[in-house]
Amino acid sequence: MNAIATPAKLHDCRDAFVAVLERLGAENPNVVAVCNDSVGSSKLGGFKSKFPERLVNVGIAEQNMVGVGAGLANGGLLPFVCGASCFLTGRSLEQVKADIAYSNANVKLVGISSGMAYGELGPTHHSIEDFAWTRVLPNLPVIAPCDSIETAAAVEWAANYPGPVFLRLSRVGVPDLLPAGHVFQMGKANLLRDGDAVTLIANGTLTHRMMKAAEILATEGIQARVLNMATVRPIDVEAVVAAVRDTGAILTAEEHSVFGGLGSAIAEVVVAEAPAPMKILGVPGIFAPTGSAEFLLDEFGMAPSAVAEAAKSLLARKSGRA
């Protein structure tokens, strides 16, 4: 009788974020948090209790929130500006552009509940455009950690990086994929699984689904490489070119529109540096409807089994059979 596999423990990356933030706050009196009436959803309650004078709640005024963050940075403080990613990026994009990126302000923007994490709140709360809006801005690294370990490492890195950063975090639980003690490197992909047939690339909540898809493919004798591409800007050009050279085909998946996001960033490299068959999985250029994030990802063809089928269709293109 076969043993029943124990499901992997799921972690809310916001917990990893606030754990590091509270430790940084204890170590550095210049660390402050700014939020938009989102103490609860940003999980800043512990920070507020420990450092009440260092939490600024501007209310539902995201443009002011970003401006306040820039002012605090100009005053020598280290602000983490936290809010729902859909509003932090969409509603205050001009302030992110002018006050943060153009001014090269030392502000850490933390987009909470990104992608379709708000689920039942529907299209107004889905954040499936934030990669596209932020990755075109100079001076602004765009990062979407794949698990709680990478989240903690990325927050630690961001606190020491002398400039603006956009961290994209979800509230949907994911299993840990990276080893304890992982050190984040901006612009560097993580090789999670090696293979020579096709390369699967994702970040955030999609990385573990890519790993499951690779496991499905392995049962059919297809060895897929899996890359966790947490940094959307700057993209890891070397890893993408190596993936094309070694596997000949690339499949990306993201909790974002298929336009302007991770897949688009990788396609820019593929077209310019190493043309090869490629497919981008994501929200297909529509307003994603109401539904849980898990349901919507499955509906848009990003269940592990569907990802595996998409990979096999790429293999057919690579071999000239389709």
UniProtKB/TrEMBL annotation:
<protein>
    <submittedName>
        <fullName>Transketolase family protein</fullName>
    </submittedName>
</protein>
<dbReference type="InterPro" id="IPR029061">
    <property type="entry name" value="THDP-binding"/>
</dbReference>
<dbReference type="InterPro" id="IPR005475">
    <property type="entry name" value="Transketolase-like_Pyr-bd"/>
</dbReference>
<dbReference type="InterPro" id="IPR051157">
    <property type="entry name" value="PDH/Transketolase"/>
</dbReference>
<feature type="domain" description="Transketolase-like pyrimidine-binding">
    <location>
        <begin position="11"/>
        <end position="176"/>
    </location>
</feature>
<dbReference type="Pfam" id="PF02779">
    <property type="entry name" value="Transket_pyr"/>
</dbReference>
<dbReference type="Pfam" id="PF02780">
    <property type="entry name" value="Transketolase_C"/>
</dbReference>
<dbReference type="InterPro" id="IPR033248">
    <property type="entry name" value="Transketolase_C"/>
</dbReference>
<dbReference type="InterPro" id="IPR009014">
    <property type="entry name" value="Transketo_C/PFOR_II"/>
</dbReference>
<keyword id="KW-0786">Thiamine pyrophosphate</keyword>
<comment type="similarity">
    <text>Belongs to the transketolase family.</text>
</comment>
